[in-house]
Amino acid sequence: MATRKLTRSEQVQQTILYPVDWLEERSGLVGGIKYFLFRKVPGDINWFQTLGSATLTAFIVQALTGSILAMYYKPDPNSAYSSIQHITNDIFAGWLVRGMHRWGASVFIILMFMHMGRVFLFGAYKYPRELNWIIGVLLLAMGLGEGFTGYLLPWDQTAYWATVVGININGTAPFLGPFIAQFLQGGTYINADTLSRFYAIHMLMIPGAIFALIGLHLYLVIRLGVTSPPWSKEAAGTGSLVPAGQNGHRSGLTRFRPRKGKAS
Amino acid sequence: MPSDRVVERRRIFQQYKADVKERGKPFYPYAMLHDTIMSLVVVCVIVGLAIVWKYTTPGDHHSTAAGWLGKLYDKPADPGTINFVPRPDWYFYFLFYLLRIFKWPESVVLGTIGIPTICLVLLLSVPFIDVRTERRLSRRPVAVVAAVLVVLSMGILTYKGATAKEALGTELLADVPHWAQKQGFQNNPKAVAGAKIFAVAGCLNCHQYLGVGGGFAGAPNLSAEGAKNKGIAFQIAHLKCPACVNPGSPMPSFAGLGLARLTLLANFLEASKGPK
């Protein structure tokens, strides 16, 4: 009886897990996600180390609200301004989506700087994580580029004149400057095509690059691991190895108490 | 053969991996819980800002009235405008203010391109400048001092950029009779009319004239522009397309003002021979 019941429940389990196994057999994704979730991180990590994922969250908010705005926004000098008014005043919760995108940009940029400051003070850019620091700096530059190109899109006075001067300042750079200015404007002067060009850069080119760089950034975080706070007495990598079994009294955010009787 | 430093840092990383394997905690649920809480806080802050932005804006939201967090939008873009204030979003104020520090034409490229490029290159090379394995702040005085200086200077530049006063066209109009008297063009109606356009068209957001205005992005002082005797035709051509006449000029085109206004402006500039 007992064996027969077990077999049945096993059968049910197998039926439920079949799609998961199917996916795992063909992609290895399930194993990858398991590795991501259950990989070990140092026990003494700290609230400051949540700034990276907070930055990612802010970026996801930007991507989602930006996609919704793109459904209503018209990147053409004759209708851009009125489409922004339409979003703000007529569309259901349009003001909320636009406000979240407008202010999410500031939050995203602040969080990028704070995350960078944390990595700098923790010395987390040191061997073997140099490459991830470089990717992070590129992401910061891309984020500022998003801020610059997005500022023009409401096509109001502030946006227009700040961008005219911004492009002209780009144009003063030696050698490459005039080419950059011409590329941004889509011509020798700011014109009707400039707005749609900024729109394409803002919602296709730079976000695509940001997605790719975030992927690399996370891959390296998972591959190389998270650093302990430098002041931690049990910082991983300092060689102060606590013998197994005595690790129940450690301070830190992710306090972990091994179960008694289980070999650790 | 690898140097001692390379051997040492490899050993430390191997030790790190062994330590984490030995005493680390799984990412889920421990670290993930805190990441999730922090992410929720971020989303709440963003939603909160959006709500404050909308609900502190007075009037119907078709107007350009400003709430606590500024306007919902400014007036529609008008390339033919006769008054504009070039002001970027707040997180660019530090760059914006750099352009006010480097106001002389010869040095402006330092503010626009030089310093930002140097900062970016320095930032990229941080891991190659600081190659020691030491991570404790008490043993990294140079890094700490550098971090404090960067935060201080960016904070001060952002603050100065936020509080920098633009020249207001309506206030500057009151200066026109004073300019006419000092430059001696009271009896030249075209120059006086041009001076009024000059006052309201935003020229003084960048240029300086008889001690008022700008000093932004390397724009020259125009108090004695007429003494160069470049001629009305040159001034009009320059106002229409500054970079065509003066390659590399960051000044925007004022062709939108129309030929009649540009002619008056040119007359004003040519009549400005310097204070008497």
In short:
The complex is a heterodimer of chains A (264) and B (276). With 264 residues, chain A is mainly alpha-helical. Chain A is built from nine helices and one strand.
What does this structure look like?
Chain A is 67% helix and 1% strand. Chain A is mainly α and 264 residues long. Residues 240-264 of chain A have low confidence and may be disordered. Chain B is mostly helical and 276 residues long. Among the domains of chain B are: 25-76; 169-271, Cytochrome c-like domain (Cytochrome Bc1 Complex, Chain D, domain 2), CATH 1.10.760. Chain B has 12 helices and 3 strands. Chain B has helices at 4-23, 27-55, 93-101, 108-124, 126-129, 141-163, 169-173, 176-183, 189-200, 232-240, 242-245, 259-271; strands spanning 25-26, 66-67, 70-71. A two-stranded antiparallel ribbon of chain B has the order 2-3. At the A-B interface, α2, β1, α3, α4 and α5 of A face α1, β1, α2, α4 and α5 of B.
How far the N terminus sits from the C terminus of chain B, by CA atoms, comes to: 77 Å
CATH architecture of the domain at 47-224 in chain A: Up-down Bundle
What does the main sheet of chain B amount to? 2 strands, antiparallel
CATH architecture assignment of the domain at 169-271 in chain B:
Orthogonal Bundle
- Overall pLDDT confidence of chain A: 87
Look at the helices and sheets of chain B and give the structural class: mainly alpha
CATH topology label of the domain at 47-224 in chain A: Cytochrome Bc1 Complex, Chain C
Low-confidence stretches of chain A: 240-264
Task: Give the terminus-to-terminus CA distance of chain A.
Answer: 37 Å
Instruction: Give the CA-based shape of chain A.
Output: globular
Supply the CATH class of the domain at 169-271 in chain B. Answer: Mainly Alpha
Poorly predicted segments of chain B: none
Q: Briefly, what CATH class of the domain at 47-224 in chain A?
A: Mainly Alpha
How is the topology of this model organized?
The complex is a heterodimer of chains A (264) and B (276).
Chain A: H1 2-27, H2 29-38, E1 40-41, H3 51-72, H4 80-89, H5 94-121, H6 130-152, H7 157-171, H8 177-185, H9 192-224
Helix pairs in contact in A: 3-5, 4-5, 5-6, 6-7, 6-9, 7-8
Chain B: H1 4-23, E1 25-26, H2 27-55, E2 66-67, E3 70-71, H3 93-101, H4 108-124, H5 126-129, H6 141-163, H7 169-173, H8 176-183, H9 189-200, H10 232-240, H11 242-245, H12 259-271
Antiparallel strand pairs in B: 2-3
Helix pairs in contact in B: 3-4, 3-6, 8-9, 9-12, 10-12
